[in-house]
Amino acid sequence: MLETTIEKLSNKKCTGCGACFNKCPVSAIKMEYDTEGFLFPKVNSEKCIQCGLCQKVCPELQIEKTVQMIHPEGKCYAVMADDEIRLVSSSGGMFTLLAEYVLEQGGVVCGATYSDDYMTVKHILVSDKKELTRLRGSKYVQSQIGTVYQEIKNELNKKRIVLFVGCPCQVAGLYSYLGKDIPGLFTADLVCHAANSVTAYQSFIKEMAKGRVITEVNFRDKSVYGWSTPTTISFQDGTVSNEAWNQSKWYSGFLGGIINRKCCSTCRYAQRMRIGDLTLGDFWQVHRWDKTCNDWKGTSLVLVNSKKGKELFRAVKNRMKLCKEAPLDFAVQYNGQLVRPNKAHPGRRFFFHHLPKDGYHKSLWYGQKWRYDVGLVGWWFAANYGSVMTYFALGKILEDMDLLAIMIPIPKVDRQGWEPITEKNIEFMKKYFPIANKRPIEKIDECNRFCDSFMVGSDQLWVQSYVPLVGYTFFLDFVDPNKKKIAYATSLGREEYSGSMEDKTLARAFLKQFDYISVRESSGVEICKKSFGLDAVRMLDPVFLCQTKYYDELADQAKISIKGNYLLCYILDPSSEKERAVEYLESKLNLKAYVIFDMKTFEKSKKTWSMDNVLENVRIEDFLALIKNCSYLLSDSHHGVCFGLIYHKDFICIANRARGYTRFESLFNLLNIREHMVENPLEILDHPSLLKSIDYVKVDHILKGEKKRSLNWLKNALNAPKNEKYDWDTRLLVKYHNMLKKQNEGIKKMKLILKELDNEEG
Ligand SMILES: Cc1cc2nc3c(=O)[nH]c(=O)nc-3n(C[C@H](O)[C@H](O)[C@H](O)COP(=O)(O)OP(=O)(O)OC[C@H]3O[C@@H](n4cnc5c(N)ncnc54)[C@H](O)[C@@H]3O)c2cc1C
Fold first, then answer.
1. pTM of the prediction?
2. CATH classification of 562-694 is 3.30.565.10, yes or no?
3. Taking the domain 348-544, which CATH number applies?
4. Which atom of ligand 1 is nearest to the CA of 94?
5. Over the stretch 670-688, which tens digit does the pLDDT of each residue have?
6. What is the pLDDT at residue 695?
7. C-alpha distances in Å from residue 512, one per residue of 478, 524, 700, 730
8. What is the architecture, at CATH level 2, of domain 6-66?
9. Whole-number pLDDT of residue 714
10. Cβ of 303 less than 6 Å from ligand 1
């Protein structure tokens, strides 16, 4: 469906113009609101006849055709209608002059009106001057096009003239729907700042009303502040709320790019060359060019773009109180959307994330403040399927808890980059979570500016041998003392924390600054007690806490699929013994084996592996799908086994001492499945009993309880206030360390500068 229908168009590009909806010959397309409150086409696959018309009329999918519709730059005018018209119009009343003329010729006018309860805005056709009141006034919320393109076509077929006024993307939608410019049709596009969310608007209006019945909404009321952009809302009980533009929270969201439709920030119509026959806008600051053009009652900016535009402009010229040609170069200085789209605010996603539960005003505050609830620190980008998946899982768990998380890139002490393969993992994560900018180690503390708390995830992080590589970043040494620090199911990997007394003292000092600590292995609890004097609790690896539907969604995007039954071998550290085990299982289970190697050591592993069954270019999505669909699993990876358990696979695990034995031991003991684990791969050949099926009723029962306990712990750690236990000794130590770190960095920088100077002199 995606490829052959309008659903091919990305949500970032769809303007919601409704051309596809109007065109569909079998009414298979509906315009539906998304969670942000913008209309998007939805195709009913049962009704769809795959005719492809919806793609053919889409101005965004047929970009070349759309570009041809844009007129060369036209003349620019400052225009005023009579005072009575201007008083009820947004700008200089140009719309009314055009509309009245068209109606007098027996034509119809199409523009935007509020619904009776002021909760939505939609385009309608009118043929009576009295109805122009409904169309006048800018409604700063996206208007629903409905079926007006079809209605316009009917009117044109009847040889009536039609004036269509709307945002430029709506004018493009109309032309695309009609397929050509039809005689009798006149269009006026509006200089458009952006189209705003209906859901945001409804929430705003309701919060302003505080239970009162709304009798009018006017974003261009001239009665109090003159020609400006106030927000006036009148209520049935006679009360009126009237806020100037700089007080109105609606305009903060609108002009600030927080509540705009996504595509508006890349709008191709925000330029001097226009799509409509005419363009209407406000001639802001026109008095700076010519004082006689501004009496503060409103001046229209009118661009005459086409032959038809000229014709219509000439026809209404004698109705104008003022008409003066003006330089477009001057106009664009005070009307940015004549040269570029309005930028999206970085906090836009925060606003929409909070909107459903917090309402307009509070969400606006979140959007403007734009802070993340949690900064996630760890090996989320590492060249290892398991590492990436633990952070994917953590990110999704937080998302399900309605918290916004951001992945923090980890800098290397030596300022070198990570292996090229990590870039692919970063790209993968980018599709699902925000990722902070890369920063050198001395600047990583800038992340305090946009994160309310920090969490280290559940990979091997507190390992002394990583300190020379990444410093004490995994111990959150860069985090401000007033921020909450949480460790969720962190692994210490080995049996103990190696390193000198000093190393341990420093690590202890950092860990004591944590508010909540949980570790992944039982041995981790002991190490924390023995080496650091800390009471940590053991929690389940996050991959077990994340909803399986998210893994399924990833697996659905896999590009590698194997037909029929197969044995999947996910091998991190290949050896001839493991090859023998694979061969044995192949013949014993009568399954063909396929091998996935570790991302990081793929080339090396492939060279040492003599069998011809290695899968290449296995993406994260493939990794999941291959486990999900296999008939049997063999793995020396902890996370390989975890996903085997999630997908109820029968498996044998080869516990991998080189990568930390405790993680296997801890998990297998917990789930009572020790009989499915071996240390030496050759044991598999001697113990056919290893092949017996895993009792998933029992495993799931344990996992269910563990999952509940772990989620509760995590929720509490995230929601509870910061642990305000001050330990001044360790604080001082941390401060001293950070001071030294800064000094060392300073010295390093000085050395670099001196070296550069030396080179220059040389
Ligand atoms: C969302 C939006 C953003 C705008 N941004 C700018 C801007 O950045 N700079 C600028 O100079 N001008 C902007 N305008 C245009 C400006 O606000 C006036 O609409 C325009 O100058 C016409 O004023 P008027 O006095 O001739 O018409 P009025 O008599 O006030 O009539 C307004 C016209 O706009 C149409 N209209 C009203 N609301 C909508 C809507 N939601 N969608 C489509 N059409 C609508 C009506 O049908 C009517 O034809 C914007 C308008 C809208 C609707």
1. 0.68
2. no
3. 3.40.50.11720
4. 26
5. 999 999 999 999 999 988 8
6. 95
7. 14, 15, 35, 7
8. 2-Layer Sandwich (3.30)
9. 97
10. no
